[in-house]
Amino acid sequence: MADGSEFDLDYITERIIGITFHYSCTEQMYQHNLHSITQMLQSKHADRYMVINLSEHNDDLSRMNYRVVDLGWLERQAPSLHLLCSVCKNMDNWLRAHSENVLLLHCKGSKDRVGVVISSYIQLSNVSTSEELALDLYSMKKFCSDKMVNLMTPSQKRYVQVFGRLLTHQIRLNSSPLFIHCINIHPIPDFHPTVCQLFIRVYQDTQTVYTSGVHQVAVGQTDRVCFALEPPQMLKGDFMIACYHKNDSMRTHETVFGVQFHTGTLCGDQLSLQKEDLDYANKGTQSSFGQIFALKVSQSFLKIGI
């Protein structure tokens, strides 16, 4: 196997292994390393190991390993609540089925998805832990605090918290849909020295359901912009709102911020988020952007302000 420059291999506990292949890993090196890791797993654990793939479906992974479960999602995003529950249920069922069962969490690219899964499984283990699992729980918490806390996005952390609150019955999912009427951004991010060209997209699950027009905002002339959605956009379940700056010179767009929620977890008529609670913006350098993201909610209407 490689010396670690191509992938990270973490024994999170004695029975939970995480492997993340880096962006720099070529397809040829990926196949070579995957073959070596598969041989290691088969020699040490025979048929007592299962692979949960947290990335897109991979034919090489399925061909080399007998037991692979595809439960992946896009990196740097939070999984749906349903998918998060499925991952943790598969993990728990497999690990509890036999004391020698071993689990491999596989992903390509960013390591954040392993962090989301382990952080969520900690929430489940907190509810149903036993003395023999106490050491594993400590190891998982140490792994997350040492390696994952700065990799996970605010939305990923939010979904882990929601998952934990659902497990402990602190919240119940509301089945009513919501409608977005408008999105307000205040103050304006300084993505351009003179004119900031902003537009927003709303995603239901992974599908785009709304794209606004481009708002050209002269820097220094106004400190806010309002996107009115006509007709109002209905949402139910997992959704994401993303704001982009249109870069004409590069013929592309830059992500200003993203934020993910599940409609069933929103209650009350006002939700305010600080800059550090917004994906991308939380680590951005735009000095004027994102002091507050305010979400105004009702069972029928949703007004959003930043």
TrEMBL record:
InterPro entries, A to Z = C2_domain_sf, Prot-tyrosine_phosphatase-like, Tensin_C2-dom, Tensin_phosphatase, Tensin_PTEN_phosphatase
Q: Which SUPFAM superfamilies match?
A: (Phosphotyrosine protein) phosphatases II, C2 domain (Calcium/lipid-binding domain, CaLB)
Listed PROSITE patterns: C2_TENSIN, PPASE_TENSIN
Boundaries of each Phosphatase tensin-type domain copy? 1-170
Domain C2 tensin-type per the UniProt entry, residue ranges: 175-302
Q: Which domain of life is it from?
A: Eukaryota
Q: What are the annotated GO cellular component locations? A: focal adhesion
Q: Which PANTHER family match?
A: TENSIN, TENSIN-3
Name of this protein: Tensin 3, tandem duplicate 1
Lineage of origin: Eukaryota, Metazoa, Chordata, Craniata, Vertebrata
